Amino acid sequence: MKFATLLYIKNSNGDYLLLERVKEPNKGFLSPPGGKLNIEEVESPVACAVREAFEECTIKSHPNDWKLLGIVTEKAYPNVGDIMIFCFEYLNRINTLPEDSNEGKFKFVNPDEIKYANIPDTDKLFIWNFVLDNKTNLFSIYIDCDSKPYKCIIEQD
């Protein structure tokens, strides 16, 4: 199993920072920035969020700048396999788009447009529902990508 973070970063208008990916996984789709935990270094999920925010977005942050929104476990995610994703919200706002990188090109997307944007199926069907509706509760969901249609089990909300 792989472990990763997704970073939900907003501007002062409440629009989300998304990356049009040029690499797998999710090549060609819009996705929040993030990346895999360095398991060999025993990196914590929040340390990964801090590192990935800097590497992908040049955002200098500290662990207390991040709030854990939820945990998503996906069985047999296409081009990845089994993965557990820690979803973090950045508690500060940014108003300048990060520069394009070897990961892709950034853009801000209004929350009302996210469900209509070119985002991966499991994000559209499940994950964004929890992120956009999240008030204070930590969520945990399990998505079986082997089944068609995808099967999602809400473990806690």
Task: Write a concise synopsis of the structure shown.
About 15% of the residues lie in helices and about 40% in strands. The chain has about 160 residues and is α+β, with helices and mostly antiparallel strands.
Please characterize this protein's 3D structure.
This protein is an alpha+beta fold. The protein has one domain (2-156): Nucleoside Triphosphate Pyrophosphohydrolase (Alpha-Beta Complex), CATH 3.90.79.10. 17% of the residues lie in helices and 40% in strands. It has two helices and nine strands. It has helices spanning 45-57, 121-133, and strands at residues 2-10, 16-21, 30-31, 34-36, 66-77, 81-93, 104-109, 139-144, 151-156. It has a six-stranded mixed beta sheet with strand order 4-1-6-5-8-9, sandwiched between helices. Strands 3-2-7 form a three-stranded antiparallel beta sheet, with no helix packed on it. A hairpin with a 3-residue loop joins strand 5 and strand 6 (81-93). It starts with a strand and ends with a strand.
